[in-house]
Amino acid sequence: MTMITLVRGDITEQHVDAVVNAANSSLLGGGGVDGAIHRKGGPEILSACRDLRASHYGKGLPTGKAVATTAGNLPARWVIHTVGPRFLPDEDRSDLLASCYRESLKVADELGARTVAFPAVSAGIYGWPMEDAARIAVETVRGTETRAEEVRFVLFDERAYEVFADQLR
Prior knowledge:
By secondary structure, the protein is α/β, with parallel strands linked by helices. It has helices at 32-41, 43-54, 94-111, 130-143, 158-168; strands spanning 3-8, 18-23, 66-70, 78-83, 115-118, 150-155.
């Protein structure tokens, strides 16, 4: 049984096997969690992402998919990059958001990762309402078969932490 934990803090400081990056499809860095992971992880992550773009993902990583790279200078072994959907009020894209969690856990299992840290995918600049993002994240992780022993949601602020805590209750 996978243990789900919550941490209020910085995802780039998590001592886990795999950190999940809420990446953009270019895989070349950006703002929010993505920018922080690339900055703190250093140039090895960007280099690995460029290699992915040159081989399998010439057009970028599709929304809802996941792929792993080195973690560079982070205190993790790997970074699993996943591209969350932008929130559109007139279109239900929750299946794509759920896919980010399922696909990331699948990649974690392929890597042999036992501890995985997730941010609140799509709940930042992609505009997904935090309550719904937390519901989808928790339900999907609970419903996904994985060999990970711990899935940790790392939330940057108190409000996000409380919303995720409500979902776990």
